[in-house]
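[worker-b] picked up task from shared queue
[worker-b] task type: protein-ligand structure
[worker-b] ligand name resolved to calcium ion; SMILES cross-checked against name lookup, match
[worker-b] sequence length check passed
[worker-b] input payload:
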Amino acid sequence: MKRVKLAPLMIALVAFTHYQLVIAQDTTPPNWQVIAEYPHPSHAFTQGLNYVNGELVETTGKHGLSRVLRYAPGELPSGSVATLPKQYFGEGSVVIGDQLLWLSWQRGQAFWIDLNTGNRRNAFRYDHEGWGLALSPDQSEIVVSDGSDSLRIWNHQGELQRTISVRQGVYSWHYLNELEWVGNTIFAFVWMNEKLLAINANSGEVMQSYDLAGLRDIQGEQQRITRHHTLNGIAFDPEDGHFFVTGKNWSTLYKLKLEGWE
Ligand SMILES: [Ca+2]
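[worker-b] inference finished, payload out:
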């Protein structure tokens, strides 16, 4: 009787199974896709991105380089609407009517900027770091990030209404950064992680995550960027239901279709 050699057969079977798994992972379609590309001002250390009435309103950071930029998709800004004194490091922003509310990073000071005149006035103070901002769909509330795993909900005067802890099962997500609020979903970039989270605005549960490292790789091939030039701008376009997305000092602004968040 001829003995069947099982060992090579098992190795082949395991190798085949592993191969199948690898193939299965590689062919999983991404839950996002690029549908358009526009220029983005590469001098902009993006900290806040808003899309209002067909225009992008962007706030930038760094001491002495913190600016408000206003431009249509496909164009580049010709100048700044407003700037901050160099002791302030600009962060996220929201547009309410013709006023922009703008956070500073570590100085606990929020500002109102008149988008027509560029005039700046103090809004209110807060006792934590300021990172991202987004306006609720009914414009009555503002969500604020401070780099932790919690989001604060403010009224227009910066008074705390409630706090949301962001969780995915038993895991918490820290370094929540630039924000956008659409329906009952709050989108949040994660600092230096290249993840975009879709968070239930009531429970704080992460309902979907988007791995945009591929987008960063494409951008990295086009220009010299480091890990600090992280993804950090998201703005919803209600006309087509898609999202403008960019990163700090990126030369490209992308329009993304995001799947599975509604
Ligand atoms: Ca935003």
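[worker-b] attaching auto-annotations
[worker-b] The longest strand covers residues 32-39.
[worker-b] releasing lock
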